[in-house]
Amino acid sequence: VNEASLNNIKNNHAIVIGGSMAGLAAAKVLSKHFRRVTVIERDQMPEGANPHKGVPQGRHPHALLKRGELILDEIFPGLIADLISKGAFHVNSGKEFELYMDGVKTPTYESKISMLALSRPLIENTIRQHLLREPNIRFIQEVEVTGVEADPTRTYATGIRVRGRNGVQIDTTDESLFQADLIVDASGKESHMPQWLESLGYSAPTESKVACNMGYSSRIYKRPEGLTWTGFYAQPKAPHRKRGAIMLPMEGNDRLQVTLMGMAGDYAPTDEEGFKEFARSLPEKEVYELISTAEPLTSIVGYRKSHNQLRNYHEMPRYLEGLIALGDAVCAFNPVFGQGMSAAAIGADTLDKALSSYQPGESEASSFAEYFQKQLIQGISVPWQLATGEDLMWYPEQMPEMDHETRLIGQYMMQVQKAATTNPYVMEVFYQVLHLLEAPNVFFRPDIVLQVVNEMVAA
Ligand SMILES: Cc1cc2nc3c(=O)[nH]c(=O)nc-3n(C[C@H](O)[C@H](O)[C@H](O)COP(=O)(O)OP(=O)(O)OC[C@H]3O[C@@H](n4cnc5c(N)ncnc54)[C@H](O)[C@@H]3O)c2cc1C
């Protein structure tokens, strides 16, 4: 335990609400700073790599971006090797991944970026196994957090209120489990932390929302022999190309997770005929060909979501010390950008660094809670900008007023996208940005500008 790390928070016990991606990664970093860590999860965890009820998106394909992979492997040393031993494998983004951007196939080349192919349940289950090896972490299942408690002056969070689920009996007054020095909300996008804060006399955070009305319809197929690609993505493009599809291999490379996606309310149906018709309507014929010949292994499952959502915990008028939030509980994105698990990893990494660096006297923040949320927004603002920058265009009424400079940048970015479809050098930088390895301002580097201009002249 790093005794010096917290100063005004005791380092005895930390509680994490929610035992999914953000909660697991946060618990692991907390175990370095606190004597004990308790994760409270309302679901019963499934045997093996299977989805659970509280994470319905586990039935849909999940791409793990390179940045997320690197951070998770640092938090859980040996994680990627373990996943590979369970059948996960790397897919070269330039050579083995067929990508259509706005209907145009991108170049085939050897990229430096490869993406780990695996299912969401495999990664979550494997991380949980790694976590359970930590002697000072306890994982409690089928217990739901129903509120937060504070000291009599309502300055500090002191613990949580809970109830057992599915008949689970639990001593809800057990101080060793439910009283803590730091409480981390990682309960996902339906988090009740805003209401818990209000019930203690604090304001709820303001919310930023960007509508996209996206729908996923997904099904797993047996991977047919003889495919020329390992992964496939036909990207929707705001505001005109509402439909797209992604086909991602699972661990073992014997199955494909196929998702038909529709934006701006153009949802892909979940019935057999509707699913096929939607696939047939895509200009990229690979999708219809696959689903009309490959053997389906599951039924079709749907997921619909209306907006990207950011709870602005970084600009609260007053903070309840000892209570923080990360993961989807703070920021949930349109999943077509595949950023959520990586943003959860960024959140845990930020927490680790904040616990080490926070010095009450030296920081402008009035509390660790404020300090952390302000650090976190710096880490997740790029994924938020990437997702919402595109999604703002689905509905003209949500487009902000643009000055001349912003319009020029937008036009240049359209040329960058075009150049990426013909020029591997630009495409590689595009991948670096999509994988959160570089910030978007890299597109303004002189060598990239030169390549983009060359492509414009050649066109
Ligand atoms: C269709 C779809 C596809 C996606 N595809 C990708 C992708 O390709 N790549 C990617 O990186 N991300 C993707 N995402 C996003 C990713 O799933 C989330 O960002 C990620 O799961 C967030 O993790 P989290 O731990 O913050 O929240 P969640 O995964 O939502 O987990 C919250 C956990 O908290 C528990 N919980 C909730 N309330 C309580 C309570 N009161 N008490 C106790 N426990 C509680 C829940 O049971 C759950 O286990 C996708 C999302 C969707 C919807």
Structure summarized in a few sentences:
With 459 residues, this protein is of the alpha/beta class.
Give a quick set of tags describing it.
459 residues, alpha/beta, eight-stranded mixed beta sheet, five-stranded parallel beta sheet, 13 helices, disordered N terminus, binds flavin-adenine dinucleotide
Helix-strand layout with pairing:
Layout: E1 13-17, H1 21-33, E2 36-40, H2 66-75, H3 79-85, E3 89-92, E4 97-101, E5 104-105, E6 114-117, H4 120-132, E7 137-140, E8 143-150, E9 157-164, H5 175-178, E10 182-185, H6 193-199, E11 207-222, E12 231-234, E13 243-249, E14 255-262, H7 272-280, H8 285-293, E15 301-311, E16 323-325, E17 331-332, H9 340-357, H10 368-391, H11 404-420, H12 424-434, H13 446-458
Parallel strand pairs: 1-2, 1-10, 2-7, 4-12, 10-16
Antiparallel strand pairs: 3-6, 4-5, 8-9, 11-14, 11-15, 12-13, 13-14, 15-17
